[in-house]
Write a structure and sequence with these properties.
Length: about 300
């Protein structure tokens, strides 16, 4: 009787099964890990860019909503824009007596139906005002009651030592599509208002914008198409003139979001600088001097 033998074509299948059960070799494992790391390195910057663009979009939406609330306030107050800040007294030399307030509090009722107080926003900022006041791309995103500042002439500090400037009527503005109303503000670290933007942008690019002789507010100024000075672009309160300045925190610290009196908002590119690191290169920035010139 002849002994049965296993067909030859069955051996390759058994060999394949044993190789598969053995798993990956060390070299194959290293190659696989390398490919995965390479793919992560390629995709991560793209994912971060997409996330940054989404946060910039949310910030622009915040500014449009805040602008809409300011427009509603103006309509309810005989065409007068809200003032930027008031210490609570008529004399700047007298300490605030409990009625301290600013533009963010004055328009809060258009978001919540109520009105936050200055004490609310100082003691518990994240509960005092809704999230529309916070920029999702702020360096200290979870700190401070607001991350935006207002135009110092259109919405002035009533008892400013550089004024006082009266509340501004909307109808006085001849270029509502060009004049900035709110913009990303530098976060300042103070005991009273930790990592919040100042309410009023009194200093932009190191210039005291409320000075009566400042050419930025002279409608006849010949350099109105020049880019504004970007300033220190810092959230560090110890940096000179950082507080009350524009914060170019979007697009890797190269852009600031701004809303205008007509309600539209843009992400404005920071101007390039000359060798002195102060003078902007002509035409490189999206915010021009004319965007800060208040009409007489």
């Amino acid at each position: 009787m002849t002994k049965a033998t296993k067909p030859r074509d069955a051996w390759p299948e058994r060999t394949y099964r044993s190789a598969r059960a053995r798993g990956l070799s060390l070299i194959e494992l290293v190659i696989t890990i390398f490919i995965i790391a390479l793919m992560v390195g390629i995709l991560l910057p793209s994912l971060n860019m997409v996330r940054g663009q989404a946060q910039t979009g949310r910030c622009l939406s915040n500014l449009r909503q805040l602008s809409g609330a300011i427009t509603a306030y103006t309509s309810d107050n005989r065409g007068v824009l809200p003032f930027g800040y008031w210490s609570g007294t008529s004399d700047p030399a007298v300490p605030a007596d409990g009625f301290e307030t600013d533009w963010s509090i004055l328009i809060d009722s258009y978001f919540t139906g109520g009105m936050a107080t200055f004490t609310d926003t100082s003691s518990n900022p994240r509960e005092g005002l809704p999230e529309e006041y916070q920029c999702p791309q702020a360096q200290y995103a979870n700190q401070g009651d607001k991350h935006y500042l207002c135009h110092p002439i259109l919405m002035p500090a009533l008892n400013s030592t550089n004024g006082p400037y009266p509340p501004y009527r909307f109808t006085r503005v001849q270029r509502p599509g060009e004049v900035a109303l709110l913009m990303d503000g530098a976060q300042t670290g103070t005991a009273q208002d930790p990592r919040s933007s100042l309410a009023v942008g009194e200093i932009i690019g190191g210039e005291l914008l409320l000075s009566g002789n400042d050419p930025w507010y002279n409608a006849a100024d010949t350099d109105s198409n020049d880019s504004i000075k970007p300033g220190p672009n810092s959230d560090n309160g110890s940096v000179a003139n950082a507080a009350g300045n524009i914060r170019w925190r979007h697009s890797s610290n190269q852009a600031a979001n701004v809303t205008f009196l007509d309600g539209h908002a843009i992400s404005a590119k920071i101007p390039d600088l000359q060798a002195d690191n102060v003078t902007p290169v002509a035409g490189t920035g999206d915010l021009k001097i004319r965007n800060l010139q208040a009409d007489p």
